[in-house]
Amino acid sequence: MRADTDLVPTPSQTVGPYFRIELTTQEHCVKCVPGPQAKGERMWITFRVLDGNRAPVNDAMLEIWQADANGKYKHPDDLQPKQLDPGWIGFGRIATGEDGSCVLETIRPGPVGNGAPQAPHLTVAVFARGLLKQLYTRVYFAGEAANDKDPVLQLIPPERRDTLLARPDPARPGYWLFDVILQGDRETVFFDV
Amino acid sequence: MDSEVSTRVSVKGYIRLPKGSQPPSLYEPYRATIKRAPLKPLIILPHTLSEITGPIFGHEKVREKDNDLTSQHAGEPIGERIIVHGRVLDSNGRPIPNALIEIWQANSAGRYRHIKEQHPAPLDPNFSGAGRTLTDERGAYRFITIKPGSYPWLNHYNAWRPEHIHFSVFGMAFLTRLVTQMYFPGDPLFTYDPIFQSIPDEKARQRLISKFDLENTQPDWARAYKFDIVLRGPEATPFES
């Protein structure tokens, strides 16, 4: 270790307005989290990012991390005795459009953990101009019975839990809706990880 | 072993970020935070498998010349050619190999190749301003690029950003994900820049300033700047989740 580097984590800075020239070029954005072959219930989630005035945030980037249909992550530190779906990655990255929204294709993940399993969920990191560091949130699915016993949802005041529930889009079968409200009355729950 | 415990999964937690070492969400001098920063308290999350895992990328994500921003076009870009290099370590001092680093920046005139860029400075047909690389087994990375120019922005009257390169880094876990900006030593704009100044601790701000590196400067060709990156490391003891 060099003497001129202390070992305190490097500070975060905003992703700014120009991240599209690298992070979400056509080549580098990932709109389909599981890949075409993955097993599971295929779904599309329409995210909408809104600011404290409920104005669409048209320069946000979302990154998604999730387990496969069995609740297994593609990672050496996932020691669950489960088989990983071959070809699974579980990562997505997408920028919002002018209306603050974007659509991500995925499958419904399985519950994670064995002893006290977590309900199916996606982990989401939100980046944008005006966010000096990324915000972490989770997408759970409305109507999922396991939500009632999810250890993370239990940490959240009951009146705020539904900010983390994606809801079926009444207009389109297979589509779900999830709003990321950065600030205000219905502010999405964000986590200090 | 107790049968209930044996069905549980060991989770390796990560150190928490020291106070003052990171910017707050709301920092009013940086005006874009005012309507975008969450104002309700964050929920403190004990680390689970969902946080301590994360995408790990391989060489399929990076082509050989992706770390040389001066060789992506027919001609050479205008500006001072520089080498930007360093290591990615965790907070226990362990190198992080195969970390994906992506960078993007303005050209030497202070102009980004981006559709919403308004600054009336010239685009450089030989400079896209984006690159990527993976760290090697020592956690080391290296880019060749040109020194970005400063540019004005709309935050306040006569606001100019210090010269900087945007960095995006993936470590071993989704919670160690880092997006930041690297600055250059001695920039007169540090004092006036609310993005840089948003970090409370003076010592923490210094961590974003690269160091001029004569040792790795290539004679008659390019100056070098060194920028080491530290990501959160695992805590000593795993716990059950």
Core attributes:
heterodimer; A: 193 residues; mainly beta; Protocatechuate 3,4-Dioxygenase, subunit A; 8-stranded mixed beta sheet; B: 241 residues; 5-stranded mixed beta sheet; 4-stranded antiparallel beta sheet; 4 helices
Topology readout:
The complex is a heterodimer of chains A (193) and B (241).
Chain A (H helix, E strand, L loop, with lengths): L41 E9 L9 E6 L25 E5 L5 E7 L14 E7 L6 E7 L23 E4 L6 E7 L9 E2 L1
Parallel strand pairs in A: 1-8, 6-7
Antiparallel strand pairs in A: 1-4, 2-3, 2-5, 5-6, 7-8
Chain B lengths: L2 H4 L3 E2 L31 E2 L4 H4 L28 E10 L9 E6 L24 E5 L5 E7 L4 E3 L5 E3 L2 E6 L8 E6 L10 H4 L4 H5 L4 E2 L10 E4 L2 E3 L7 E2 L1
Parallel strand pairs in B: 3-12, 3-13
Antiparallel strand pairs in B: 1-14, 3-6, 4-5, 4-9, 7-8, 9-10, 11-12
Our count of helices of chain B gives: 4
Q: Oligomer, anyone?
A: heterodimer
Note the main sheet of chain A: 8 strands, mixed
CATH class division of chain A = Mainly Beta
* Gyration radius from CA atoms of chain B, angstroms: 20 Å
User: Mind summarizing the main beta sheet of chain B?
Assistant: 5 strands, mixed
CATH H-level superfamily of chain B: Aromatic compound dioxygenase
Strand order of the largest sheet of chain A: 3-2-5-6-7-8-1-4
Architecture of chain B, CATH level 2? Sandwich
Q: Structural class per helix/strand content of chain A?
A: mainly beta
Helix count of chain A equals 0
- Fourth-level CATH superfamily of chain A: Aromatic compound dioxygenase
Proportion of strand residues of chain B: 25-35%
| Average of per-residue pLDDT values of chain B | 93
Compute the CA-based radius of gyration of chain A: 17 Å
Calculate the mean pLDDT score of chain A and round it: 95
